[in-house]
Amino acid sequence: MREYKTNNRTYFISEDGAVYTEDMRRLVPHRGANGAVSYLLGGERRSIGRIVLGLYGLPAPTKFHKEIIHIDHCLWNNHYKNLMWVTSSERALRQKPPWWKIPVDPNAEEVPNPRSNPITVDGVWYASVSAAAFSLGVRRDCLSRALGSGVFKGMSINK
Question: What is the pLDDT of residues 70-110, one digit of tens each?
Fold first, then answer.
């Protein structure tokens, strides 16, 4: 864990984005409207991804790399290896790839992307469970467990 100071308070932040107080109590994260994780640190709401990347990752390569993205598109995965500095134009290109939602063709003999583990939700094809979880606004591990237990009736995994 690395130390992070703000407004005369000291916090400890793990490499996966967990935040602890000086007496090692874990803080509860806040999920914003866009799904990003933030914490109330020193009286201000701060994005944990930017802090983690600053503490554990490399510094921004240029002055234009001011934004971060989550490589696996899961906003709850704030491990420093899953975060990357990008420019605002790169972020716009990477935020939702064109293959994100592809309607399922019932006459198709093959799945559009055979290298992934696709999932279908209400007739919409997602490239992976991670892509579906991000689009639906749920955590990937929760969606995987729900799929395994059969909680969601309208979902199916194509194999």
Answer: 888 788 888 999 898 989 888 877 765 444 454 555 555 54
Residue 146, H or E segment: helix 140-149
At 18, phi and psi to the nearest 5? Answer: -75, 140
Rounded to whole angstroms, the Cα distance separating 28 from 97 reads 31
Where residue 59 falls among pLDDT bands split at 50, 70, 90? confident
Dig out the tokens for 33 from the structure: 């409207």
pTM over 0.85? The answer is: no
Q: Tell me how far apart the alpha carbons of residues 92 and 86 are, in angstroms, rounded to a whole number.
A: 10
Residue 147, token pair as written in the block: 């799929």
Alpha-carbon gap, residue 57 to 53, rounded angstroms: 5
Q: Where are the domains of the chain?
A: 2-94, 102-157
DSSP label at 150?
Answer: T
CA distances to 36, 44, 116 from 126, rounded to whole Å, are 21, 36, 10
| 129-136 vs 140-149: helix crossing angle, rounded to 10 | 110
Q: What is the CATH number of domain 2-94?
A: 3.90.75.20
Gap between the Cα atoms of 119 and 138, Å rounded? 15
